[in-house]
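Anyone else keep sequences and structure tokens together like this?

Example one:
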Amino acid sequence: RSGVPVVPRRLLPLSIKTRLGLDCVVVERWVEHLLEARPAAITLHGRTLQQMYRGAADWSAIAEAAKLARGTGTLMLGNGDLNTLVDAIRRAAESKVQGVLVGRGVLVGTGVRVGVDVAERVGVAVLTGAAAVRVAATASNTAVGLPSPVTNWVT
């Protein structure tokens, strides 16, 4: 051959980032279809493609998706309107997703970035820039003004 080492083939986990639908919310039918592929993770943005970034993200639809994915082995991550660490923790707790992806919220100001510094001091690991938030929350959360500890978040 060319002298380039051959890398053995291996299975790679599949993850999917998608929206609630094209021009209307079809989360139940769409997520059930995606779950048939048994992806490692699904990240659901809380708007339709037609909405782009207009209007508020629909976290109740994301919560419905999380409910559908529960027990399947697929991580359900939520995305949309996460401008602060408190937003991320609150939305994850309310929707019962296993994590969140922070996208444009990192650019909105220093809310998430400052939150990351605080979070790291109290045992919350956060990766920003379209990254998952993993909470290994402790009782220290309340001491720094964060909501009650949230557990079971996975990156």
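And example two:
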Amino acid sequence: RAAGTTEPFDQAMAGVLALSGRLVRMVYVPGDLFSVNPVTARGVPGLFARNERVVCVFESARGPFVLVLVGATIVGSMATVWHGVVNPPRGKAVRHWDYPDEPTSAIRLKQGEEMGRFLLGSTVVMLFPKGPLHFNPEWAPGRAIRLGEAMASYA
């Protein structure tokens, strides 16, 4: 089974849920807006932790996982399917949203469903617990990833 996929667009990037899961928390973290092109990413220490981010924490049958939408130069805003546009407004304060596991209000998404998008493109960082996750050996730096392509699998 694929552990995650993403689809490049001409002017946007849609984050597609890596596993079926329930949204637990979303955090907006203000930050810089460095370009995320390969040259800048290599030259700016901690770029993906310094740029503006929307951190989405999920719980799944395989445990927790996190999808981080990373802002960048020219990214107009980041949006999720449950919240809509998260930014702007851009501020200096970290903002938190908690999503309880209640039958009428829990936010559940299935593997392969869109979870968010950039208005213009940027980067999605995915975090999983240490364990039997094996990345696709055909991946290479700069290689495009297509919707439906297996990014990783569980052993």
